[in-house]
Each structure stands twice: as C-alpha cells, then as structure tokens.
Amino acid sequence: MFCVLQVITGTVYVLSVYWLSDQPLEFERMGQFLVVCLLIGFVSESLGLSISSRLDIVVRTYQNNLKYHEYIMGIYEMSL
What we know:
Shape: elongated
Radius of gyration: 16 Å
Order of helices and strands: HHH
Largest sheet: none
Number of domains: 1
Number of strands: 0
Number of helices: 3
C-alpha cells in the first residue's frame, strides 16, 4: 500500500514540477525523468529504513540525523 501511495504522490509531484519548469513536452523525456525520480525515491526510502532498523530506538529518534548528516552532506558536496 505504501509503495502505491509513493508512486502516486511522486508522479503527481514530478509531473507538476516538470511542467512548471517549462521543460519540452516530450513524452519519452518526461517518462525517463519520472522513472529516474521514482527510482531515487525508492532507493532513498530503502536506505533510510535499513539504516534506522539497525539502530536502537533512542538513536533512531535523536542521534540518527546528527550521525548521518555529515555523510549525506559529503556526498552532496562531492557532486557540486
């Protein structure tokens, strides 16, 4: 059920962003953009669930954001 909801809301969001950013209305290009965005969403969701399932509840709630913030920002800065 959650996967279906993620696909529906992700599709609505991605298609509205694609249209509002004034990209060319080519269905093949729009489909490729949609698939890439949905796959990134699935991978990030599974990464977050797998990391949080290995930790204690206190660590998951409070320290998880602090612990992995540097890791995520390091990846982001490498792509710039």
